[in-house]
Design goal:
about 50% helix; Butyryl-CoA Dehydrogenase, subunit A, domain 3; globular; 3 domains; binds flavin-adenine dinucleotide; Butyryl-Coa Dehydrogenase, subunit A, domain 1; alpha+beta; Butyryl-CoA Dehydrogenase, subunit A, domain 2; three-stranded mixed sheet; 14 helices; single chain; four-stranded antiparallel sheet
Length: about 475
Amino acid sequence: MSVPYLLNDAKGHIPASERIPVIARPFVSERAKRTLDIVERFVEEECIPADTVYLQQIKEAGDAAKNTVEGRFGSHPSVIEDLKKRARELGLWNMFLPKNHFKEGAGFSNLEYGLMAEYLGKSMTASEACNCAAPDTGNMEVFAKYGTEEQKQRWLTPLLNGEIRSAFLMTEPQVASSDATNIELSIRREGNEWVLNGQKWWSSGAGDVRCQIYIVMGRSSPDNPNKYRQQSVILVPADTPGITIHRMLSVLGFDDAPHGHGHISFDNVRVPLNSMVLGEGRGFEVVQGRLGPGRIHHAMRSIGSAEKALEWFLARLNDPAKKPFGELLSKHGIMLERVARSRIEIDTARLSVLNAAIKIDQGDARTALKEIAEVKVQVPSMLMDVLDRAMQAYGGAGVSQDTPLAYQTALGRTMRIVDGPDEVHLLQLGRNENKRGDALRTRIQAQRTRAVELLARYGMKEQDPLQLNRVSGKGSKL
Ligand SMILES: Cc1cc2nc3c(=O)[nH]c(=O)nc-3n(C[C@H](O)[C@H](O)[C@H](O)COP(=O)(O)OP(=O)(O)OC[C@H]3O[C@@H](n4cnc5c(N)ncnc54)[C@H](O)[C@@H]3O)c2cc1C
């Protein structure tokens, strides 16, 4: 028997595995399909209800500490640990590490995890419950791909076990960080140590009491003539002397406690020489290796967020207590058009993301750069449109804390900025597409020449087919 909140069709519940888009089905294993259905139930039945408990536990921790930052950020909601335990019982752990590159994960492809990530994106707690939350996912990939055995043992193992959390520190307040060649936190060698000085901000997860390791990008080789070889990535334990978290940044008014986004300074922070990842001057390689599949994860969670917005939208349209001008909102045609547009846009965006995931699976993130950039731009824009329509249908409630839509909007909006703003991806896509321009001009010209030759063979001369230059009354039967 179907459970009401699992209904996703007028006739009842169709499991997630049976709703996999046709185009992706041949690439999904039976095991992944079974797991997908478990993920769906876990999220709908356990995580979404637990989101309310999670928010209340953070609030109560804040109240107990008289609403200080330490209160909201000093707490670790116990409901998360209960969900983690449950997720492990269900076999839902570390699904994000793709099987063709890492032995440490749960053995799924990027496509298979992408399908699961959509459901995780419907809840605030689900990703962390399954140890699939950013920024740890990308950070674990860094350790798994580039870490030494020692680094893996010290940091990757506890991260894979969900015992600690981590942060990735690239962005700086004083420079335009979407161009990472600008990153200037200084990494200087002194004897057996690296010494770090500078500032970082938007360090997501740094507020979490369990965040023990920072992966930091800085400039170690300012004199290297190749500007892509000046930066390095280095590991810095969060409790190293000289580190100060000055404040936590808000996202459109939300503090994202207990993980948060830190503004941090480094004042003569010293770490041993073996803290460097991959090697001096190889920061760009590490950052690029980290961001590929991570962008797909964000995009798939955003698809889930859009589905959730549509669900709330439909619930409001059919609320018998709210009938503007005597009719359910669903009887007002304009709303159904908005529903239809949302359906089309979500389904189209999902296909693009799955296509990118398949492309990564069949090669690697580098072979799918175009597809990844496309979804990086397409999906957040789609999400904003769907959220906006749902929010509008709720009137005042839509922008308040009484629906999840306001928080989803804040989170969704940041996707147009994080991991490179839209413009950077658009510019890259536009540039690459434009490379065909000259070849296309030549081809079109050749086709025109061939058309004139063909006309001659049929005994004709080229004419304006619309006859727009005809003289009135002459030669036309019209
Ligand atoms: C919620 C959130 C979480 C984040 N988490 C992290 C994190 O964990 N770690 C981390 O290091 N960073 C993080 N960031 C930072 C994020 O990655 C940066 O904000 C982003 O890369 C842009 O850098 P910037 O803010 O310095 O903007 P800038 O580089 O100053 O760019 C400003 C604007 O300029 C425009 N622009 C940039 N390049 C071009 C171009 N080529 N053509 C035309 N216009 C352009 C864009 O509109 C862009 O938004 C996070 C940000 C947010 C909002």
